Structure formats: C-alpha cells, structure tokens
Amino acid sequence: MSKIINSSIARKVSMALSALFLLIFLLQHFTINVTSVFSPDTFNEWSHFMGTNPFVQFLLQPVLIFGVVFHFVMGFILEARNRSARSVKYARFNGAANSTWMSRNMLWSGITILAFLILHFIDFWFPEMNYKYIEFLPEDPTRYHHETVEKFHSPLRTGAYVISFVFLTLHLLHGFQSAFQSIGFNNKYSSFIKKLGNAYAILIPLGFIFIALFHHFNGH
Predict the structure, then answer these.
(1) 130-153 residue pLDDT tens
(2) Which of 108, 131, 181, 206 yields a CA-CA distance of 20 to 30 A from 100?
(3) pTM of this prediction?
(4) Could you tell me which of 20, 23, 18, 68 has the C-alpha nearest to residue 204?
(5) 200 with 176: CB under 8 angstroms?
C-alpha cells in the first residue's frame, strides 16, 4: 500500500513540477509576443535571439518539448488511474458537491489545449525548422513580425486561438493552485497563491487573445 501511495505522490509532484515549468515558459512566451503589438522591432530582435541562440535552440527547446509531452502524458495517466480507483460509479458520484467544474474537466480542457499546441507547432515551429534546417534559407532578423501577423489573417485560425485560450483559462484556474498544493504549499500562503493563480489564469490567456485579435483586425 505504501508503495502505491508513494508512487501516486511521486506522479502528482512530477506533474506539478512540469506544470510550474510550463507556467514560467508561458509567461516568458507572452512577454515576447506582446511586443509584437507595441514594438515590431523589439519583437523581431527578441525572436531573432531566441531563434538563433544555441543555448535556447539546442538545450532549452528540447527541454521544453519534453516538458510539454511529459505533462500531458502524466495528466492522462493520472486521470486514468483516478477513474479506475473510484469504488463508486460516476453516475452515483455527486462531483459538484466535492469538486469544482474546472477540476472535474481538466482532461477535456487539457485535450483542447493539446490540439491547440499541435496547431501552434504547425503554424510556427514546423515552418521555423523548415526555414533553418531543411531549406537553409539565409537568416533575416526582420522576418518574425511579418510571419506572425500573417498567421492571424484567417478568421478561422484566429477563432481557434481565441477558443483555445479560453480553455487555457479554465485549465489554469484549477491547475495553478493544484500545482502548488502538490509540492507542499497548502498552508498559510494558500490564499495568496489562489489569488495569484486566478490573476495569472485570467490575465495571461486574455493577453494572448488580445494579441491574436489585434493582429487579425490590424494586420490586413
């Protein structure tokens, strides 16, 4: 029994640590992307640095991809084990009385976000890899802003981004606080962490939505 408990705790801690890592990346990603609205030159400069720096490309980028894959795989494993561990059928389980809507639907919000990440890779990462490592095109430090704005010309693609960030908010409203609780911050700081998590979960996705809509309506 102790091995099962310890294994379950280890999985939850691993899930939490990967979530915190992705939260830091998301904040950094937003910081760079929002400059595309206010200063295209700054956006080009920062994007060029991130796209050509060997430390970022060959160390941080693989770690990030591993973190994303690990987080989603671990999430699906935990959800499957939680479902199999229930001794009472879901039809007899009053979920609303014991948990929030967000916590009961983390799997579905996670799947939506995963679909968005696949779209995001198709839109940006794959073309970037093709540009640099397949076609070996000469580096143009000013290309990044134009390429980003061009992606938001389509109302369907822009709508998909907006919907995905709404689901990201729902996912983060539970996930942010849950990650800190899993690593032992369920104490006198819980109230502050909950407020910080709610602010992060709302403001960061809202910021990304603003970026997408701004480029859609102003980039033609």
Answers:
(1) 998 888 888 899 999 999 999 999
(2) 206
(3) 0.86
(4) 23
(5) yes
What is the pLDDT averaged over residues 185-199?
A: 82
Q: Which two tokens stand for residue 145?
A: 């802003």
Closest CA to 43 of 121, 137, 143, 123: 143
C-alpha–C-alpha distance, residues 58 and 31, integer Å: 21
Q: What is the C-alpha separation between 141 and 215, in angstroms, rounded?
A: 20
At residue 184, the 3 state secondary structure works out as: coil
- Asked which of 32-36, 90-94, 215-219 is least confident by mean pLDDT, the reply is 90-94
Q: Are 143 and 36 in contact (CB under 8 A)?
A: no
The 8-class DSSP code of residue 14 comes to H
Query: What SS3 state is found at 188?
Result: coil
**Looking up tokens 């994007």, which residue turns up?**
47
Give the tens place of pLDDT for each residue, 86-136: 555 554 545 555 566 667 778 788 888 999 999 999 999 999 999 988 888
